[in-house]
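Lecture notes, continued. The same structure-token format from the folding unit now serves as the input rather than the output. Read the line below as a description of shape only.
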């Protein structure tokens, strides 16, 4: 089964051959269009954005996938704090985009071992970094595959969610990472719902991938997979059976890369298999190949086929005129070509009906875009006014509220842009079909970013403080001590014998004293007193006042931004109108090259003698051969691309006995 790279390389070879013929024939419009399509295919990139909740192992996953264990910073808590794009480079290097003190952006080269300083949450220069661009000499990144590592969504770093949201408009595919250690969180499901709703990748099942990391830490991994399939299916509107989640262990893959297992091939093979990465790579690369076939290869082959027809048709018409010596056939070819030339001249005029039709249909699209824009952005504002303003943390820290609202506005912009692009593509295909000119390749550009909601003027609500005295009472302990027991004392009793007895006892006590034990209370630790300043809850009346103030500010922003957002949507439609008009004019000019060439050749055919006609037929066979070969090669490549896009076996361009 031929892969994307081999098919793309053969398409580029076909382009080289056709461009050479076009230059020789002075078909400048055809050659220019071919060259542009060739460059788009050669430099075309497919961007895969890796996203998910923080601490899900995204960076570790990419390190293991690229066989580079230490290229991206990894930590047990928050690690990546900026987006990092990873693309192929013959010479390995890295650039960081920094925010200068004056607000401008500066791009500087850095060493690969400095990535952590800018990309890690613990990095010494993370506050300066805006974006990282890495070029790695990895065969995984051939043919324009670009991977984007994002900080993650949810968690305490709300700006991370905003950074991740900003990357979604660039995504041709999304690799969504969940963890075996934790179930899908609310922030993950919210983000996945928005992503599936917004980005162009959502239209293609092959463009949404799911990976369950840290699979080595769970015994019952199948239960976790089934639970996540059900949740993702409910969010994306698919059946659980259609949701493929690949379990992997980056730890086991890194152990494999570190050489664990030594010289035991069976042990190393088992280690790699248990990591899950062979299955992930099979799924990831095969699905991306199918998606790239749809996105990049199909349009290039369409342009090549149209160019071959433009160059070959005049030669075929000339051959037909030379072989049929009757004047009737020549006259018929002339009439057909002149009618086509007249039709193209009419289409190229400023008063061509299709221009008015395009304007009318774009007016209809403008109205629909306005309606969709209002609906999507109203959803953002309603969520801000009800859900976000109910979160106490947003009231105490309005900068977090601004981050959430601005992130949602960016997602809404993406949603409208992608929806409008799909509607516009349908419009242009219908128009091109009706006027007899196939059309492809034009896309509606993204809407400009909406104005930023700025709530910095509010500042943070500081909780009231109170000076509180703390007292730790003194503590005592009991000690056991010994002392001499007191005996009889005092004056001697009366009577002779009593006095003798008393004297005897005193003499005995003197020579053999008696001792006793007793307990004494002793100070252990003295009393301790100190004062501490503690925060108290902000009074409810202050919170409610802040909620009303922020609600007023959000409502003002909603009113102020509505006309700007509407204007941005209309400007995007205007840009597309100019783009599709230019594209159609270019295609008309190419067809006019074909009819002009055909009429010239028919005129020359009418003036040739029989001997000249015979010689010219031999020349025509030589001129047609590379174009006919190219047409056959293109047909074979179209079948190969279709098989690759559908994931069917035998997708090579030489399948089914096709000639090379």
């Amino acid at each position: 089964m031929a892969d994307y790279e081999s098919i793309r390389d053969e398409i580029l070879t076909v382009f080289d051959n056709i461009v050479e013929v076009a230059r020789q024939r002075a078909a400048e419009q055809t050659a220019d269009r071919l060259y542009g399509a060739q460059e788009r295919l050669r430099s075309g990139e497919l961007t895969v954005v890796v996203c998910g909740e923080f601490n899900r192992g995204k960076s570790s996953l990419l390190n293991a996938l690229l066989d580079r264990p230490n290229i991206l910073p990894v930590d047990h808590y928050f690690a990546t704090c900026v987006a990092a794009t990873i693309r192929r480079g013959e010479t390995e290097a890295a650039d960081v985009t920094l925010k200068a003190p004056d607000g401008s952006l500066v791009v500087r080269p850095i060493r690969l071992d400095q990535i952590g300083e800018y990309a890690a949450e613990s990095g010494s220069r993370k506050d300066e970094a805006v974006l990282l661009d890495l070029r790695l000499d990895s065969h995984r990144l051939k043919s324009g595959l670009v991977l984007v590592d994002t900080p993650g969504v949810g968690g305490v770093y709300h700006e991370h969610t905003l950074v991740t949201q900003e990357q979604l408009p660039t995504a041709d595919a999304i690799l969504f990472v969940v963890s075996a250690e934790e179930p899908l969180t609310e922030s993950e499901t919210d983000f996945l719902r928005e992503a599936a709703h917004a980005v162009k990748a959502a239209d293609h099942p092959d463009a949404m991938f799911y990976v369950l990391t840290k699979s080595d830490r769970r015994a019952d991994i199948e239960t976790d997979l089934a639970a996540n399939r059900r949740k993702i299916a409910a969010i994306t509107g698919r059946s659980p059976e259609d949701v493929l989640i690949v379990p992997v262990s980056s730890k086991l893959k890194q152990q494999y890369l570190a050489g664990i297992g030594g010289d035991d091939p069976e042990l190393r093979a088992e280690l790699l298999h248990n990591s899950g990465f062979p299955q992930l790579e099979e799924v990831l690369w095969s699905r991306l190949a199918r998606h790239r076939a749809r996105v990049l290869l199909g349009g290039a082959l369409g342009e090549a086929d149209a160019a071959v027809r433009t160059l070959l048709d005049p030669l075929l018409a000339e051959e037909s005129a030379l072989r049929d010596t009757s004047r009737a056939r020549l006259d018929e070819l002339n009439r057909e070509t002149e009618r086509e030339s007249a039709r193209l001249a009419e289409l190229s005029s400023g008063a061509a009906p299709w221009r008015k039709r395009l304007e009318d249909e774009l007016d209809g699209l403008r109205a629909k875009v306005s309606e969709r824009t209002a609906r999507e952005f109203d959803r953002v504002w309603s969520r801000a006014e009800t859900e976000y303003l109910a979160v106490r943390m947003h009231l105490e820290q309005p900068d977090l509220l601004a981050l959430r609202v601005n992130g949602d506005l960016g997602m809404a912009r993406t949603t409208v842009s992608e929806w409008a692009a799909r509607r516009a593509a349908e419009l242009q295909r219908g128009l091109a079909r009706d006027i007899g000119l196939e059309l492809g390749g034009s896309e509606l550009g993204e809407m400009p970013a909406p104005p930023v909601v700025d709530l910095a003027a509010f500042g943070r609500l500081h909780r009231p403080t109170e000076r509180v005295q703390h007292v730790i009472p003194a503590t005592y302990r009991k000690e056991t001590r010994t002392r001499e027991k007191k005996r009889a004392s005092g004056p001697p009793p009366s009577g002779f014998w009593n006095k003798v007895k008393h004297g005897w006892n005193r003499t005995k006590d003197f020579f053999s004293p008696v001792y006793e034990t007793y307990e004494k209370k002793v100070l252990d630790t003295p009393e301790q007193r100190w004062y501490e300043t503690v925060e108290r809850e902000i009074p409810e009346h202050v919170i409610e006042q802040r909620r009303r103030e922020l609600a007023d500010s959000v409502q003002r922003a909603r009113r102020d931004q509505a006309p700007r957002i509407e204007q941005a949507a209309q400007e995007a439609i205007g840009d597309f109108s100019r783009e599709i008009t230019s594209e159609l004019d270019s295609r008309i000019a190419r067809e006019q090259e074909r009819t002009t060439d055909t009429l010239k050749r028919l005129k020359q055919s009418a003036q040739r003698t029989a001997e000249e006609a015979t010689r010219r037929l031999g020349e025509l066979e030589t001129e047609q051969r590379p174009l006919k070969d190219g047409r056959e090669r293109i047909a074979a490549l179209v079948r190969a691309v279709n098989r690759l896009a559908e994931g069917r076996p035998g997708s090579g361009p030489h399948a089914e006995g096709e000639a090379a």
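Point for the exam: Confidence is low (pLDDT under 50) at residues 76-80, 155-160, 439-444, 649-660.
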